[in-house]
C-alpha cells in the first residue's frame, strides 16, 4: 500500500497545472461535502441515512474530468462524489439530502437518487448494479442519435454479483456501444470483504466478453485521470465499451450509521489507508513536490471550499420543504 | 360501443399491432423495437413479421435472451431521447424484468422530481389454455397495475389494440402492453389510416340493463358470449371493457353498475389480490346504494397453470361459468 508517486512520469506532465489544481478542488469539495453530510446525520438534522464517498474521491473526479459535460453518468447509493464530480452544485445537493424543494429532485429522491440532467447525471441508483442497464441504454441511444456522447457507469465491486451487469456488458460488446464501466473496488460489499463474495479475477469478467479492461490505483487521481482520458477517448472514437477497475477504499462505514466496524475490518487497516493512501494527500504532496502549488495556495483552496460548503449547507438547511401538494405530483409525466 | 368509422377492413389482432408499430416507426424515428427473435423471426407469434424488412436491424433489434438487460437498456435509451418498445416474449418473463420496470422505469420520473422521463413500451402477453403449462400461461398484468408510475393496457379487439398501441408509444411514461396470445389470429374491423384511443376510457362492448359484466383482454370475448347466452334466458347483460387497468375509467364502471344494479368482474389474472379485486372494490364503493347483489369476481383459479387440458380448462372463466354466475346474481337459477 505504498503510493506510486513518480514525479517524472511523462503522463502527468502533459496535464496543465490548472487542471491538477481543479482536480484537487473537486476532490476536496467532495471530502468536505461528505464530512458535512456526516455532521448533518450526527446532529439529527438529516432524515434517513447516507453513504459517504470519502476515500474514493480520486475515482469520481479522475473519471468525470475525462468526460465531456454532455456525456452521461449513472451513479450509485454512494453517489455524492459522482454527482459533484460531474458538475452538480453542493447547495442544491444539500437541499436534496435534507428533503427540501430546492433539491435536485425537489426532495423526492434524497441522498440515493440525485439526478441532474444538466450535468449529464442520469441518476444515482439504490439498487446495486441497477443502473448498468440505464448507462448502457444511454450509450445505445447516443450511438443511435449519432451524438458522440458516451456513458460512464459507476458501480462498486458488489455489483459484480448482479446478473444484469453481465447481460448489458455482453450487449455493449456485441453492438459496440460507447460505455465505460467503472468498477470501484472499495473492498467491501456492505459489511463483507469482497474476497468472500467474488470468485476469480475481477478484470477477467469484462475480458470474457472481449471488452478492453484496465486496472488502476484508485487512490492516485493522476493514474485514474490519465487512464480515464485514454479510455474515454478510445470509447468515443472506437464506439466500443471499456472497463476500468479502480482499486480504492471507503474511509467510513457502509453508511453513516455503520460505526462499529471491527467485526469486518480492523481499525489498523482503516488507519493505514487514511494515513498512507488518502487521495487528497497523495495529490497535494505531488503537486507540492512539482511546485504546482505551495502550502499557502493549498490553504487558500481549503478556506475557499470550506466557505462554499458552509454556505451550501446553510442554503439547504434554510430552504423550505416541498408543499404537501407535491406528494402526488410527478408520478406520471 | 366505439367502432371504427367508414369502410373498415377486417384484419387480425396481430396485424393491428404490427400496423400500429409500423405507423409509429414511420412517424417517429426515435421508436425502435428490441427483443428476442423480433427481427427476421418476427416473434414466435409472427406479430412483427415484415418490420425488419422495412426498418432494418438497427430499429428492429434481435437481442440475447436477457430480459432484465434489454429492459434496462430500454429504460436508459428512453431517458436519453429514444422511444423503445421492448418485447418480452411471454408475460411470465416480466418476472425477470421486475427491478428494471418496478424500481427503475416506474420511479425515475418521480424520484427525479419530474426532470427525467421514461417513454417506453413493454410489450408482452397474457392468457392460458394454450397448453403451455405454468411458466408460459400466466396473466400477470395485476403485478404492474399495482405500481405507481406505470400504465397498463389490456386490449381486447384488433381495433382497440391498434389505437391503444399508438397511444402507448406516444405516451411519455412507461407503458406495459399485454396481448392475449390466443387472440392474435382473431379478426375484427380496423379502419384504414390514423387513429388513437386514449387511455383511461372504458368501452361498452355490449349494452344491457340487468347486469354488468366488466371484462378485460381475453375475458371480453368470454363475457360477450356469456351475454348472448344470457339474452336467450331473458337477462340483458352489459359488457364493459376498461381497456386500461391504469389509468382506470372508474366513472364508466360505476355508471354501468348503477344502471344494472349487478356486476361481475372477469379477468384472467389470478383471482386473489387481483384486478378483479380492485375493480370490484371500485364498483362496491361507487355504486353501493344501487346494488341489488354483491359484486362478484371471476379470475383465474389460484393454482399454477396446469399442463393437462382437462385441468387447465378448469382454471379460467368460461362463457358457461360466467352465465351461471350471472343467473345466480339475477335470481334466475
The gist of it:
By secondary structure, chain A is α/β, with parallel strands linked by helices.
Main traits of this protein?
heterodimer; A: 333 residues; alpha/beta; Rossmann fold; 5-stranded parallel β-sheet; two-stranded antiparallel sheet; 10% strand; B: 333 residues; 7-stranded mixed β-sheet; 5-stranded mixed β-sheet; 14 strands; 35% helix
Q: How many strand segments of chain A? A: 7
Just name the CATH architecture of the largest domain in chain B: 3-Layer(aba) Sandwich
Q: Mind telling me which CATH architecture of chain A this is?
A: 3-Layer(aba) Sandwich
Task: Give the overall silhouette of chain A.
Answer: globular
Assign the CATH topology of chain A. Answer: Rossmann fold
Sheet-strand content of chain B, in percent, reads 15-25%
The biggest beta sheet of chain A reads: 5 strands, parallel
Instruction: Enter the CATH topology name of the largest domain in chain B.
Output: Rossmann fold
Mean pLDDT of chain B: 97
Q: Percent helix among the residues of chain A?
A: 40-55%
Query: Which sequence of strands runs across the widest sheet of chain B?
Result: 3-2-4-5-7-6-12
Could you give the distance between the termini of chain A? 50 Å
How many domains, in number, for the residues of chain B?
Answer: 2
Radius of gyration of chain B: 19 Å
Low-confidence stretches of chain A: 1-5
Amino acid at each position: 500500500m505504498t503510493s506510486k508517486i513518480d514525479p517524472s512520469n511523462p503522463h502527468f506532465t502533459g496535464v496543465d497545472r490548472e487542471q491538477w489544481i481543479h482536480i484537487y478542488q473537486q476532490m476536496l469539495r467532495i471530502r468536505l461535502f461528505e464530512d458535512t453530510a456526516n455532521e448533518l446525520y450526527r446532529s439529527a438534522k438529516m432524515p434517513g441515512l447516507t453513504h459517504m464517498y470519502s476515500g474514493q474521491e480520486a475515482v469520481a473526479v479522475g473519471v468525470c474530468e475525462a468526460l465531456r459535460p454532455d456525456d452521461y453518468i449513472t451513479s450509485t447509493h454512494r453517489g455524492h462524489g459522482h454527482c459533484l464530480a460531474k458538475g452538480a452544485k453542493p447547495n442544491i445537493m444539500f437541499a436534496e439530502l435534507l428533503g427540501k424543494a430546492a433539491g435536485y429532485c425537489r426532495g423526492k429522491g434524497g441522498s440515493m437518487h440525485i439526478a441532474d440532467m444538466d450535468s449529464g447525471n442520469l441518476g444515482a441508483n439504490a439498487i446495486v448494479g441497477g443502473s448498468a442497464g440505464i448507462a448502457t441504454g444511454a450509450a445505445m441511444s447516443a450511438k443511435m442519435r449519432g451524438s458522440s456522447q458516451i456513458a460512464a457507469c459507476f458501480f462498486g465491486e458488489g455489483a459484480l454479483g448482479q446478473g444484469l451487469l453481465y447481460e448489458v456488458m455482453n450487449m455493449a460488446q456485441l453492438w459496440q456501444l460507447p460505455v465505460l464501466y467503472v468498477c470501484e473496488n472499495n473492498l467491501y460489499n456492505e459489511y463483507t470483504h469482497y474476497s468472500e463474495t467474488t470468485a476469480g479475477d475481477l478484470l477477467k469478467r469484462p475480458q470474457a466478453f472481449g471488452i478492453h479492461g484496465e486496472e488502476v490505483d484508485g487512490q492516485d487521481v493522476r493514474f485514474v485521470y490519465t487512464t480515464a482520458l485514454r479510455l474515454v477517448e478510445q470509447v468515443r472514437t472506437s464506439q466500443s465499451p471499456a472497463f476500468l477497475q479502480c482499486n480504492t477504499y471507503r474511509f467510513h462505514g457502509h453508511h453513516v450509521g455503520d460505526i462499529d466496524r471491527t467485526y469486518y475490518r480492523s481499525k489498523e487497516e482503516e488507519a493505514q489507508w487514511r494515513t498512507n493512501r488518502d487521495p487528497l494527500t497523495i495529490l497535494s504532496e505531488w503537486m507540492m513536490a512539482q511546485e504546482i502549488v505551495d502550502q499557502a495556495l493549498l490553504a487558500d483552496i481549503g478556506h475557499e471550499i470550506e466557505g462554499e460548503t458552509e454556505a451550501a449547507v446553510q442554503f439547504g438547511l434554510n430552504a423550505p420543504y416541498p408543499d404537501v401538494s407535491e406528494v402526488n405530483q410527478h408520478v406520471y409525466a | 360501443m366505439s367502432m371504427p368509422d367508414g369502410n373498415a377492413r377486417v384484419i387480425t389482432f396481430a396485424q393491428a399491432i404490427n400496423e400500429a408499430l409500423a405507423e409509429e416507426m414511420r412517424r417517429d424515428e426515435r421508436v425502435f423495437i428490441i427483443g428476442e427473435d423480433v427481427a427476421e423471426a418476427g416473434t414466435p407469434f409472427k406479430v412483427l413479421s415484415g418490420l425488419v424488412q422495412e426498418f432494418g436491424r438497427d430499429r428492429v433489434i434481435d437481442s440475447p435472451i436477457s430480459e432484465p438487460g434489454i429492459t434496462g437498456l430500454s429504460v436508459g435509451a428512453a431517458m436519453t431521447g429514444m422511444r423503445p418498445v421492448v418485447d418480452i416474449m411471454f408475460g411470465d418473463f416480466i418476472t425477470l424484468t421486475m427491478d428494471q420496470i418496478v424500481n427503475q422505469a416506474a420511479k425515475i420520473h418521480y424520484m427525479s422530481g419530474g426532470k427525467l422521463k421514461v417513454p417506453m413500451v413493454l410489450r408482452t402477453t397474457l392468457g392460458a389454455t394454450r397448453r403451455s403449462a405454468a411458466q408460459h400461461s400466466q396473466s400477470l398484468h395485476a403485478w404492474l397495475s399495482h405500481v405507481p408510475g406505470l400504465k397498463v393496457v389490456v386490449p381486447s379487439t384488433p381495433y382497440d389494440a391498434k389505437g391503444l398501441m399508438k397511444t402507448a408509444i406516444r405516451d411519455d411514461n412507461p407503458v406495459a402492453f399485454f396481448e392475449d396470445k390466443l387472440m392474435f389470429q382473431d379478426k375484427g374491423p380496423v379502419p384504414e389510416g390514423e387513429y388513437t384511443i386514449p387511455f383511461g376510457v372504458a368501452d361498452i362492448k355490449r349494452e344491457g340493463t340487468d347486469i354488468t359484466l366488466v371484462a378485460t383482454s381475453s375475458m371480453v370475448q368470454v363475457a360477450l358470449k356469456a351475454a348472448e347466452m344470457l339474452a336467450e334466458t331473458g337477462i340483458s347483460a352489459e359488457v364493459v371493457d376498461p381497456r386500461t387497468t391504469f389509468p382506470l375509467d372508474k366513472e364508466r364502471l360505476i355508471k354501468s353498475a348503477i344502471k344494472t344494479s349487478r356486476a361481475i368482474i372477469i379477468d384472467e389474472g389470478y383471482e386473489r389480490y387481483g384486478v378483479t379485486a380492485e375493480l370490484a372494490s371500485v364498483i362496491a364503493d361507487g355504486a353501493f346504494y344501487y346494488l341489488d347483489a354483491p359484486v362478484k369476481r371471476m379470475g383465474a383459479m389460484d393454482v399454477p397453470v396446469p399442463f393437462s387440458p382437462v385441468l387447465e380448462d378448469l382454471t379460467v372463466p368460461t362463457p358457461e361459468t360466467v352465465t351461471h354466475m350471472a343467473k345466480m346474481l339475477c335470481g334466475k337459477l
